[in-house]
Structure formats: structure tokens, C-alpha cells
Specification:
heterodimer; B: seven-stranded mixed β-sheet; four-stranded antiparallel β-sheet
Chain lengths: 112, 111
């Protein structure tokens, strides 16, 4: 089955700096890659996703890049703010009704 | 507002006493998922339904069962909860190939 590795497990940045979280996946057939943000005690919420026919996607301060050949994808957050502090999960899926496999999570702390 | 609803939000049960968690959705999504999430860990998929087709994860204990009587509702039954089953249980829904929408979760405590 699919295996998703995520690094780093914790990340501290100064407010205004950029943060990068990296993930690798094992199944070359995976074609849907969502990123979820989970604040303490709350549900995971989708912040951005990318499909395998696209190499990069951006939404304001958040961007995701995908390298299908290397089977890795990354989340980039620019101009970080304290409210960006949360746990971020990457995930990979074969699409359709197939399950989503989550990475192990990255705890991001933005220091004011 | 269309949403995913979970009841109860907090459930306390005794060791070995059966418990049922419920999930309902107004999104009319065809896929529903049950996840177990322990502190500082990723959500772990227990099972999912594509319409009425049930898909069990290989490592989901037999102690966990699920029912989906109709499109809107899905239940998680824990037949004999152990201390290790204390966790947040998250329900999620999606349309085929699209974003998963998570409910607020049920926090289960086992005494």
C-alpha cells in the first residue's frame, strides 16, 4: 500500500519567514495530494491540494509543488503569521473513492 | 449549512462496555470515512464506505464495526472498548476523488 513520509516533524520559524514541509510517497499511481491543517483540538481542514497533472499550485501565501518523477511534494508558506501555528498533514491518494494516506504530521510554530 | 455532524462530541465509557458513535452529513457525499486519531499522531483510517460498499482496513481490530444504513448516516460501534481505544474519532465525507470534509470529532474516554 501507499506510504507517505513527512519532514520535519517540528518546525519553528520567526513571524514573516517562510516555512517548507516536505513529503514523499511510494505509490507512483497516486494522483491526488491534499494538505490539511489541524489546530489543537479541532478537525483537519484542507488548505490546498494538487493533482498529478499539475506541477505547482498557489493560493495566496500557500503553495504546493509536486515532482512526480521523484515522488515528492512540498508545502510552502510565505510571510508566516502566528495563526499559521498548527499541525500540518500531507496526504496521497489514488483518487476516485480510494482512501487517503496521511503523512505523520509537522508541528509548525510561528514565533511572534 | 451543509456539514458533517458527529454525536456525541465527548463520550465516556467503561472498559468493555459497548459504545456507538454517530456521524451524519448533509453534503450528500457518496464516500464516508471513520478515522481514529491519537494525540500527536496522524488520523488512522479504520474503514470507509463508497455508497454501501464497505472497505475495511487490514489492521482495523475486529472490535470495531461500522454501519451505514443510508447515505446520510454512518455509525462506529466499538464492541468492547479497551484503554487503548481512547482517542478522537473523526468522521469524514467526500465525493469521489475530491476533498474530504471532516466532522468535529468525538473524543472517547475509556475508564
Amino acid at each position: 500500500g501507499e506510504n507517505v513520509e513527512q519532514h520535519p516533524s517540528t518546525l519553528s520559524v520567526q513571524e514573516g519567514d517562510s516555512a517548507v514541509i516536505k513529503c514523499t510517497y511510494s505509490d507512483s499511481a497516486s494522483n491526488y495530494f491534499p494538505w490539511y491543517k489541524q489546530e489543537l483540538g479541532k478537525r483537519p481542514q484542507l488548505i490546498i491540494d494538487i493533482r498529478s497533472n499539475v506541477g505547482e499550485k498557489k493560493d495566496q501565501r500557500i503553495a504546493v509543488t509536486l515532482n512526480k518523477t521523484a515522488k515528492h511534494f512540498s508545502l510552502h508558506i510565505t510571510e508566516t503569521q502566528p495563526e499559521d501555528s498548527a499541525v500540518y498533514f500531507c496526504a496521497a491518494s489514488l483518487g476516485g473513492y480510494q482512501k487517503v494516506t496521511f503523512g505523520t504530521g509537522t508541528k509548525l510554530q510561528v514565533i511572534p | 449549512d451543509a456539514m458533517v455532524i458527529q454525536n456525541p462530541r465527548y463520550q465516556v465509557t467503561q472498559f468493555g462496555k459497548p459504545v456507538t458513535l454517530s456521524c451524519s452529513q448533509t453534503l450528500n457525499h457518496n464516500v464516508m470515512y471513520w478515522y481514529q486519531q491519537k494525540s500527536s499522531q496522524a488520523p488512522k483510517l479504520l474503514f470507509h464506505y463508497y455508497d454501501k460498499d464497505f472497505n475495511n482496513e487490514a489492521d482495523t481490530p475486529d472490535n470495531f464495526q461500522s454501519r451505514r444504513p443510508n447515505t446520510s448516516f454512518c455509525f462506529l460501534d466499538i464492541r468492547s472498548p479497551g484503554l487503548g481505544d481512547a482517542a478522537m474519532y473523526l468522521c469524514a465525507t467526500s465525493n469521489t476523488g475530491n476533498e474530504q470534509f471532516f466532522g468535529p470529532g468525538t473524543r472517547l474516554t475509556v475508564l
